[in-house]
Design brief:
Distance between the termini: 75 Å
CATH architecture of the largest domain: 3-Layer(aba) Sandwich
Shape: elongated
Strand order of the largest sheet: 6-7-5-8-9-11-10
Strand content: 15-25%
Number of strands: 14
Radius of gyration: 28 Å
Helix content: 40-55%
Number of domains: 3
Structural class: alpha/beta
Number of helices: 15
Order of helices and strands: EHEHEHEHHHHEHEEHHEHEEEHEHEEHH
Mean pLDDT: 83
CATH topology of the largest domain: Rossmann fold
Low-confidence stretches: 4-8, 140-157
């Protein structure tokens, strides 16, 4: 919808923000500016006003609406971005007085989502949310049709019919998308069940948008996931396999960034994007350590986590961008029970990534079992498994050419091997008899 920052047809936007309380929420406005820049528009002016309640017709009041219209003309703006949720009527009234597109906060976030969606599911979800948003605003198109036809007698009917047709088509399309998403969801659940069956832990990265999640994700996996200094730079959860010492294969999931005041209907639209989060074994909550609003951001993330039922999951705080702070170097912070609670890193400068792995190891590792086995030459397939899992502590040969191996391995993995190789217990016995 918006011009990209590289094109000559880049949208020029006027930002509008209304303070509804005595306390001016500057953070909210700053975030909205970042959102606008993320959508690739050039902000030519920011207009703010205070009211005790939104104006019923224009949201901002008649005088302010006229001021916005004058600014549009004077600055050659192509779009007005309003940092609130407008009713269809308010959007329509502002549009007709300003003579240009008017997009509210939800519309802007949806536009960013549309630009960022990478996966099939991400795109389906964006389209669904956009259509739901549009279906309440269809009246606007009728208004335009009437103007084009000059509202002539005898021509009003088809306009209405057109509107009904649009409504019906949108309804059909929404149904199609919901069915498709259900299929995708079933598939995702299937994949997730397979992982859970295999006891593969999932680590999910969550965090306030722009905290450096994708950069950190890249540093951990070298996966080259799209990372840019923009809000919502990731939309669909990107999954990568990583190896964590004493834990083995682990799935790392990068999710969409959280923001304050995410419109509620969008939370539901992006539920399954965050589904990886609700089923994670461990959450890495990424925080921009250099941001003075970091505490509010942490609260904003916890708010969304509680909405999707993920607050109970063990969480490790990861304070990123410590290279921008003078008095803090990468380190792990432990609780009284000696469990890692926070890690300080810099993804950009690649500092402290090893500490992050160490903290993940401590939080994810299961009970370890140490066993000594005597493996005859015929047990090469078992020995190969031990090598693959990197769990051999000591090995030697006896005079008969049998291998004496001491392994230290995760209890769950050991249980699996006992089921897989019936002869394991015998080999333990052989070692005992030596």
């Amino acid at each position: 919808m918006f011009g990209s920052s590289h094109s000559s047809s880049q949208d020029k936007a006027i930002l509008v923000h209304l303070y509804l309380s005595q306390v001016k929420d500057i953070d909210n406005l700053i975030e909205f500016q970042t959102l606008a820049e993320s959508a690739g528009v050039e902000v030519v002016s920011v207009l703010t006003t205070s009211r005790s309640a939104p104006h019923i017709k224009y949201y901002v009041g008649q005088g302010k609406a006229q001021e916005i219209a004058d600014a549009v003309e004077e600055l050659g703006a192509t779009v007005v971005l309003v940092n609130h949720q407008l009713s269809p009527a308010q959007a329509r009234n502002l549009q007709s007085i300003c003579n240009c597109r008017v997009v509210d906060r939800t519309g802007l976030i949806l536009d960013i989502f549309a630009q960022r969606a990478r996966s099939h599911e991400g795109k389906l979800q964006v389209e669904l949310a956009q259509l739901r948003h549009l279906s309440t605003r269809l009246v606007r198109r009728l208004g335009n049709q009437d103007q084009q036809k000059g509202g002539a007698v005898g021509l009003r009917g088809p306009g209405e019919t057109q509107l009904e047709t649009d409504r019906r088509l949108i309804k059909v399309r929404i149904q199609q998308l919901q069915n498709r998403l259900e299929k995708v969801n079933k598939q995702r659940n299937q994949n997730r069940k397979t992982r859970q069956k295999a006891d593969i832990p999932t680590v999910s990265l969550v965090g306030y948008t722009n905290a450096g999640k994708s950069t950190l994700f890249n540093a951990i996996t070298n996966a080259g996931v799209y990372a840019a200094d923009q809000l919502f730079a990731t939309l669909d959860p990107t999954l990568r396999r990583i190896e964590v010492q004493d834990v083995g294969t682990t799935i790392l999931a990068d999710t969409v960034g959280f923001i304050r005041f995410l419109p509620h209907d969008l939370v539901s639209a992006f539920k399954s994007t965050l589904q990886e989060t609700t089923d994670a074994t461990l959450l890495l909550h990424i925080i921009d350590a250099a941001d003075e609003r970091k505490n509010e951001n942490i609260d904003a993330v916890n708010q969304v986590l509680s909405e999707i039922g993920a607050l109970e999951i063990p969480t490790l705080l990861v304070f990123n961008k410590v290279d921008q702070l003078e008095d803090i170097s990468p380190h792990i912070e432990y609780s009284d029970e000696n469990k890692p609670v926070a890690v300080y890193v810099s993804a950009q400068a690649n500092q402290g990534i090893d500490l992050l792995f160490e903290a993940m190891r401590l939080l994810l590792k299961n009970e370890l079992i140490t066993e000594t086995l005597l493996l005859p030459p015929t047990a090469g397939h078992i020995y190969t498994q031990f090598r693959l899992h990197n769990c051999i502590q000591q090995e030697s040969f006896n005079e008969f050419g049998d291998r004496v191996v001491t392994v230290k391995v995760d209890k769950i993995q050991w249980q699996k091997w006992l089921k897989q190789f019936n002869e394991l217990n015998d080999y333990i016995e052989f070692a005992r008899w030596g």
